[in-house]
Amino acid sequence: TEDLGYMRWNDSKKACADLGDGWRLPTKDELNLLYENKEKIGGFAKRYYWSSTESDNNFAWNQGFYIGNQVNFYKTNFYYVRAVRAF
Questions:
Q1: Which of 9, 35, 43, 44 is most buried, most CB within 10 Å of its CB?
Q2: What does the pLDDT read at residue 2?
Q3: 10 Å Cβ neighbour count for 67?
Q4: Neighbours of 80 (CB within 10 A)
């Protein structure tokens, strides 16, 4: 995984794709898996991270890395981004 900082949802999708072949924003299920393994992986802030999973045109799911909750937020809000890719 690659930590990309703090940005809006649309910018987060582009930033992941700009990393190159196969990099993308994780789904909400993948983010939950990252949360469950955060101690092994390391490098996560105790903040919310964007997922690629949309609930509609205005909202997308986030994963909290403090208590593990998943929440819908406006795509125009700023949250953290962690890119993933298949290996």
A1: 9
A2: 63
A3: 7
A4: 19
Give the gyration radius of the chain's Cα atoms: 12
Exposure letters 34-61 (e unless 16+ CB within 10 A, then b)? bbeeeeeeeebeeebbbbbbeeeeebbb
The strand ranges marked E within 1-87 are 2-7, 48-54, 59-64, 70-74, 79-83
pLDDT in tens, 18-39: 999 999 999 999 999 999 999 9
Closest CA to 26 of 75, 68, 80: 80
Pair of tokens at residue 75: 């795509």
Cα separation, 64 vs 21, in Å, equals 27
In this predicted model, what pLDDT tens digit does every residue of 47-57 receive, in sequence order?
Answer: 999 999 999 99
Cα 69 from Cα 85, distance rounded (Å):
23
